[in-house]
Specification:
This protein has 623 residues and is α/β, with parallel strands linked by helices. It contains 27 helices and 11 strands. Strands 6, 7, 8, 9, 10 and 11 form a 6-stranded mixed beta sheet that branches. A 5-stranded parallel beta sheet has the order 2-1-3-4-5. The longest helix is centred in the middle third of the chain and has 17 residues. About 4% of the residues have low confidence.
Length: 623
């Protein structure tokens, strides 16, 4: 059995001979019929070789597109999900084969240095390597699907929230089927506007099927087009267009999801009915529209945009006070903003608490509601036992979202429970491998555990996939510096320094200072320290978070202890970090000084923090 079966027209024999030489030179075995003649009948021997090969490589050319022989071989390769087409002489693939990405060999002309040959070899390798073969086989045999963000076809670009909301609702509906694996939202939506082929998307997300579509909204009318595609071949298994009024929007979503299930029945899905609970929806279409818009807007990082999203969510609640999801979103957004020092007043904290508990009361089995409760306890009530319980409940209810996993991982590392923190981070990345927050969780839990090379690898991946995130450069630089890669660390930290905005960024600057100090460079630290100490515009919470790290870098144990006592007194959302000076391997200059102070250990004993062997009082271990 050969790796590659080559299908071609006899007129192209010379070019195919050269191409086969290059393919065999790359380590692949190739079967091709040197005596092939146009119009020959489909022999049993050739059919056997074609079925046994791992790849059917078809070379389209002016002669090949008219050959019934080549068309038959290509069609069988397509049916078997192992077709790789290329094109000579700018010839498009025949109708019926255009769903598969065709590699352009029009400029090859036997020049082995052209990129098209590299592209072809990579495509062949993806089928032939044992790992890829296993992945493709598993994906093909599994009940799995990715829902890509639907394209906004409306005249108003701001209607993108609606098209993405429709796709997310369909994703959530399909996730309710226990025997259907649905790729998580962040990974699927990260492929927005992608140029990748269906094969590449299927391999990247580990799914056998892809749902894509478009939404056109005008007034009270909406047109939704959806297509279910087999990832390995690009074939459309089902497609439909729905013209409805917004009053029918929930019925349309259910109808699309039911059609998908019907299309997948018989070969990968058992006969199951879709189900949803009323608490997760609203009968009020206007409230639902406000919810979709608010949910979309609070995903951003701009405070003004997030506030607009909060107003939309509040509007949804005014129209439908029994709609649980906007309560959960409001609570979670406010708790997260509070943790970053954006809001400090009691009215905001009360709204966050009330919204979280209302969401749980309305929808006791809603994972988002329990995740919101966890954030409230983590940052506002500072009840670590209740935080643990809420995260565990959210995780038990959520099979699709990485959010409770990576949020719990963050809380666990800050409370010095590092083994479980790494486990939660690992589970987050398994659920959603392209989620930036999950990548960060893997990196930060490794960094704080002293696993510096693992941290550098995770932050490097985060950095490469999300190059606009300044924190990705900072934390990648710190991890590299901790692992002794000073030159690479300086490069990452330098980029972060150059990307800093004009307004004060005290916490960011404190971490950049940490990285540079690990590399033996003190200049940035000196400047950052003065800027932070003279800062009069940032909130008290933000300044305290930055000064925490600055004092550890400055070996100012007196100032650090006074700051930590103030953070505990004022219930700082990150006050649980007070035990981090104990970790020798993080190389903070203050560590030996603070660990030698009796009053530091006495202070820690007054706190209700989760048990950790890393925070054991040495005075209790002496005979």
């Amino acid at each position: 059995m050969a790796d590659i079966f080559v299908s071609y027209a006899s007129e192209d024999r010379a070019r195919i001979q050269q191409l086969v030489t290059e393919i065999e030179g790359a380590g692949f075995s190739v079967w091709w019929d040197r005596e092939i003649r146009g119009g020959s009948r489909f022999s049993a021997e050739i059919e056997k070789e074609l079925k046994q090969a791992r790849v059917v490589l078809v070379a389209w050319s002016p002669a090949a597109i008219t050959s019934r022989w080549v068309a038959d071989e290509a069609d069988l390769g397509l049916q078997l999900g192992k077709l790789v087409p290329l094109s000579f002489d700018n010839v498009p693939a025949p109708i019926g084969f255009r769903q598969i990405q065709t590699i352009d060999f029009s400029r090859w002309q036997e020049d082995t240095q052209t990129s098209c040959l590299d592209e072809l070899l990579k495509a062949l390798q993806s089928f032939v390597s044992p790992q890829a073969e296993t992945e493709i086989k598993n994906a093909a045999e599994s009940a799995s699907i990715a829902v890509l963000p639907f394209v906004n076809m409306s005249s108003d670009p701001e209607q993108a929230y609606f098209s993405e909301g429709i796709a997310e609702e369909l994703l959530n509906l399909l996730a309710k089927l226990g025997d259907l694996h649905v790729a998580a939202r962040t990974s699927s939506f990260a492929l927005r506007d992608t140029k990748k082929s269906t094969q590449e998307i299927g391999s990247l997300l580990g799914v056998a099927h892809i749902l894509e579509g478009s939404v056109r909204k005008a007034g009270n009318r909406v047109r939704i087009t959806a297509q279910l595609i087999k990832a390995s071949s690009g074939f459309h298994l089902w497609s439909e267009t729905y013209d409805r009024t917004l009053d029918d929007i929930f019925a349309v979503q259910d109808e699309i999801a039911a059609a998908i299930v019907e299309a997948l029945k018989g070969h990968i899905l058992s006969a199951k009915e879709l189900a949803t609970t009323q608490s997760e929806r609203s009968d009020n279409v206007e409230a639902y529209d406000h919810y979709l818009k608010g949910h979309f807007l609070i995903q951003g990082t701009n405070l003004e945009v997030i506030n607009r999203g909060l107003d939309e969510l509040r509007a949804a609640i005014r129209l439908d006070p029994g709609f649980a999801l906007p309560y959960a979103d409001i609570s979670d957004a406010l708790s997260q903003l509070y943790s970053y020092g954006n809001y400090q007043n009691d009215a905001v904290l009360a709204e966050a608490r009330d919204a979280a508990f209302t969401a749980v009361r309305l929808a006791p089995d809603l994972a988002e509601a329990h995740s919101a409760i966890a954030s409230v306890h983590e940052f506002i009530t500072l009840d670590w036992r209740a935080t643990d319980a809420a995260y565990e409940k959210a995780i038990s209810l959520s099979s699709l979202s990485p959010v409770p996993f990576h949020r719990y991982a963050e809380f666990l590392w800050m409370t010095l429970r590092l083994d479980k923190a790494r486990e939660m981070a690992r589970r987050a990345i398994e659920v959603d491998p392209l989620d930036g927050n999950a990548m960060h969780a893997v990196g930060i839990t490794a960094l704080m555990s002293g696993h510096f090379r693992t941290a550098a690898e995770a932050f490097g991946k985060w950095n490469s996939l999300y190059p606009d995130s300044i924190w990705a450069y900072v934390k990648h630089g710190v991890a590299l510096a901790q692992s002794g890669q000073s030159d690479a660390a300086r490069e990452q930290l330098g980029r972060a320094k150059d990307l800093r905005p004009d307004y004060p960024t005290p916490l960011l600057d404190s971490w950049i200072s940490w990285g540079f100090q690990l590399c033996g460079d003190e200049d940035f630290f000196s400047i950052a320290k003065k800027a932070i100490q003279s800062n009069t515009t940032s909130t008290k919470s933000q300044l305290e978070s930055a000064l925490f790290w600055i004092h550890m870098l400055d070996a100012d144990d007196e100032a650090l202890l006074a700051l930590m006592k103030e953070m505990i007194r004022t219930r700082h959302p990150h006050g649980c970090l007070v035990r981090y000076p104990l970790l020798d391997y993080l190389k903070f200059p203050v560590t030996p000084r603070l660990k030698a102070r009796e009053d530091y250990w006495d202070f820690l004993k007054t706190l209700d923090l989760p048990p950790s062997s890393l925070a054991a009082d040495p005075r209790e271990n002496t005979a």
